[in-house]
Design goal:
8-stranded antiparallel β-sheet; mainly beta; single chain; globular; Jelly Rolls
Length: 273
């Protein structure tokens, strides 16, 4: 390489933005998020989605972390909801579950829902006390509810968590949406920790959608997405595939590029409805 080319590379290197791997995220909510978008190939109308979540490396600092299954609503379109576990320092033992959502932009605001039977230390309709345990597997289930919505023109959607070790099923509550079907399922990690705080990791597996006719479809590929540095995210979040499912981890080397497909073989038969 000529001295001139070396000089050019050095010059451009000085203006290349350095990655954000230390300090707090600078996004509007002060969190760094990254997603795994499901590759749903069926054209069937969906009335349910579920996934197994295992928190394999818990947070070591008292900062909020949120791991959720999210789906959008269709027919009519607009709005969506997310169901997941939280490491929330303001809840007992920092354990909580959240099932909340948003109406279409034209309507605005959060979705209304039934009153949860779970207590809430902060008296939050969406976030309830829930004593999850690290290293234990939980199935998150979003499904069309058998209970009618109290408002005409609305559909009730159930959010539930199943402890796969004990078999206990916890119904968080129902949310009410005009949407009759689900679309665009995705799982994500939202970390309010510093980019350089100790690594936290979760594993997602048995990604399953349920069609209106009762058919189930297991998803074997996802697309990785990360909140960019320009949007306030950390550049040291990553997603990988192992022999069980997909792992999302903070404070690590990024090996899966944004938009890359992460696929695995699976023989799972779907969720317990």
């Amino acid at each position: 390489m000529s001295a001139f080319l070396s000089w050019l590379q050095s010059l451009f290197g000085r203006f290349r933005p350095s990655p954000r791997t230390v300090g707090d995220p600078t996004s509007s909510n002060r969190a760094s998020s990254f997603h795994l978008w499901w590759d749903v190939t069926t054209r069937e109308k969906l009335i349910g989605a579920s996934v197994i979540l295992e928190i394999i490396e818990e947070p070591q600092v008292l900062r909020l972390h949120f791991w959720a299954l999210q789906a959008s609503f269709a027919d009519p379109g607009g709005g969506g909801a997310h169901l997941g576990l939280q490491f929330h320092p303001e809840y007992p033992a920092s354990r909580a579950v959240n099932w909340g959502g948003y109406a279409p932009a034209a309507e605005g605001g959060q979705l209304q829902g039934s009153v949860s039977l779970l207590p809430s230390t902060l008296r939050n309709d969406n976030t309830r006390d829930f004593p999850w345990q690290g290293g234990r597997t939980y199935r998150l289930v979003i499904a069309r509810s058998s209970t009618p919505a109290p408002r005409e023109g609305f559909q009730a959607w159930s959010g539930a968590v199943i402890d796969l070790e004990s078999g206990e099923r916890t119904h968080v509550r129902d949310l009410y949406s005009r949407g009759r079907y689900l679309t665009a399922p995705v799982v994500w990690t939202e970390s309010f920790a510093r980019c350089d705080h100790p690594s936290v990791a979760v594993r997602w597996s048995d990604l399953t959608v349920v069609a209106e006719d009762g058919g189930t479809f297991v998803i074997d590929a996802v697309s990785a997405n990360y909140q960019t540095k320009q949007a306030g995210g950390c550049d040291n979040t990553n997603a990988t595939v192992d022999d069980v499912g997909w792992v999302q981890r903070t404070n690590t080397e990024r090996t899966a590029a944004p938009g890359s497909t992460l696929a695995r073989e699976t023989t799972a038969e779907g969720p317990v409805a």
